[in-house]
């Protein structure tokens, strides 16, 4: 019986991996070591996002190409960043910044701000090099600029809510099963003075829960509804990010209606 030969699609030239390496090489000539390290950390997370999640946004044809190469063995195996070109970077920044950085990465305000700043610089450079269109880069830079502004504000709002929850003095370990709900992340649906409502996903439906008593925001904090605000999302130090396997917090049901 003859051996079955599977044709593996050729990667796009240049691929994402090479483009990101090229971008970093340029930055090494102009950035201080500490700033360069921050760029490297952000781009490491961007690669992780692209290799782990970006395939979900592919067309049927692209997805079939990805599956064949990803499932190939040995030297024929390819990750997402080995297969696709820089256009997929700018297409993916919205999900990277508004989903992955919020829900999958533990990081402090400084790093969250840097994620927006670095990806904004990257998008502009991609356009300057002719790797993406000015229009695509323009949309991506606007997304990154908004993230650099909003992600730190969301983290401050989350910390304010965590502090308020801690001051309640409720021992969730002593609550009966029916008296608490387990969540990991929330979106603030609406805000009024001294209280807010959360948007909670139950199965395939979204439900508004509240009102929850809320303190006044810190100076410069976020007091608006929107997808970037994630109370009770775990946070890390300012020195660098890491990805948790899971993050959950028990919330007293009596706060929710």
Mean pLDDT: 81
Going across the major beta sheet, what is the strand order?
A: 2-3-4
Q: In percent, how helical is the residue content?
A: 40-55%
Summing up helix and strand content along with how strands pair, one would put the structural category as: alpha+beta
* Structural domain count: 2
Total beta strand runs: 5
Calculate the terminal CA-CA distance, rounded to whole Å: 66 Å
Number of helices: 7
In N-to-C order, the SSE pattern is: HHHHHHHEEEEE
- Large-scale geometry: globular
Global Rg:
21 Å
Largest sheet: 3 strands, antiparallel
Hey, roughly how much beta strand do the residues contain?
5-15%
Low-confidence stretches: 3-9, 225-239, 242-257
Salient structural properties:
disordered C terminus, two-stranded antiparallel ribbon, alpha+beta, three-stranded antiparallel β-sheet
In short:
The protein has 257 residues and is of the alpha+beta class.
Describe this structure in words.
It is a single chain. A 3-stranded antiparallel sheet has the order 2-3-4, with no helix packed on it. The protein has a two-stranded antiparallel ribbon with strand order 1-5. It has 2 domains: 16-156, no CATH class; 159-255, no CATH class. 47% of the residues lie in helices and 12% in strands. Strand 3 and strand 4 form a beta hairpin. It has 7 helices and 5 strands; from the N terminus they run H-H-H-H-H-H-H-E-E-E-E-E.
């Amino acid at each position: 019986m003859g051996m079955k030969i599977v044709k593996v699609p050729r990667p796009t030239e240049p691929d994402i991996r090479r483009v990101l390496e090229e971008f970093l090489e340029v930055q090494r000539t102009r950035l201080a070591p500490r700033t360069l390290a921050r760029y490297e950390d952000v781009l490491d997370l961007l690669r992780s996002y692209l290799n782990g999640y970006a395939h979900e946004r592919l067309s049927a044809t692209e997805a079939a190409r990805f599956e064949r190469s990803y499932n190939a063995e040995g030297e024929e195996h390819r990750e997402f960043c080995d297969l696709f070109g820089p256009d997929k970077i700018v297409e993916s920044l919205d999900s990277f910044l508004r989903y992955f950085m919020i829900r999958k990465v533990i990081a402090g305000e400084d790093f969250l701000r840097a994620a927006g700043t670095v990806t904004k610089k990257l998008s502009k450079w991609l356009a300057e090099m002719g790797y993406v269109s000015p229009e695509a880069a323009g949309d991506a830079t606007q997304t990154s600029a908004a993230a650099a502004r909003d992600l730190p504000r969301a983290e401050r709002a989350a910390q304010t809510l965590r502090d308020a929850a801690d001051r309640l003095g409720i021992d969730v370990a002593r609550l009966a099963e029916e008296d608490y709900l387990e969540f990991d992340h929330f979106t603030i649906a609406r805000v009024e003075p001294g209280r807010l409502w959360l948007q909670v996903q139950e199965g395939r439906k979204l439900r508004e829960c509240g009102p929850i008593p809320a303190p006044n925001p810190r100076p410069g904090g976020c007091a608006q509804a929107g997808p970037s605000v994630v109370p009770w999302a775990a946070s890390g130090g300012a020195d660098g990010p890491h990805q948790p396997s899971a993050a959950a917090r028990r919330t007293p049901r009596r706060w929710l209606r």
